[in-house]
Amino acid sequence: MYRISKDPDVRKNEILDTAEKLFMEKGYEKTTVGNIVNRIGVAKGTFYYYFESKESIIDSIIERRFKRAREDADNIINNTELNAIEKMEKLMWLLLNPSEEREKFFCSIDFENNARIHQKRDVTFYRVFKKIVLNIVEEGISDGFFNCKYYQDITEIVFIGIDKFMYINVKELKDKKVFFKKITAIQELLEKVLGIEEGSLDIMGSKK
Known about the structure:
single chain, Tetracycline Repressor, domain 2, Arc Repressor Mutant, subunit A, about 210 residues, about 70% helix, mainly alpha
């Protein structure tokens, strides 16, 4: 009986998909390379052909997840039917929405005890989305929706702060009342720093 040969990209994504599912089922720490290859039905050598270690595969999964989110974000900023306020609402919902699947994945990784992975996640998130947020702010200022002095530094401070704020409260966000309260606080903050009228932002409403 011969082994079916697959296109390298197909095989690599199969390994990524399988590892991602196992991390959510068993947790990152309890999942081994052996678990991954046994689930697929390939030799360990196949895994190590594509990935140096279990640590490198989690890096690739994080990169892939943020790449997909980046594509959704690009659709938002390139939508000419939306003004800057509407784009900010939709982008914040995209980044902050604690979908069950996304929450399950990130909860499967003990970031507190995996400083390297935590740093990788933060650096990747910052690299992928900082420019997108800044583009929306610049568009809002140009179109007269936002009034924000030193907007580049302020955008960076607020962007990092919101991400950290949601991360340290991630376990509480399953409670819808808590989640709504956090989003309301973020809306008020953004309205103040962007110089727009109170009540102008509706992040929760943007999901419709």
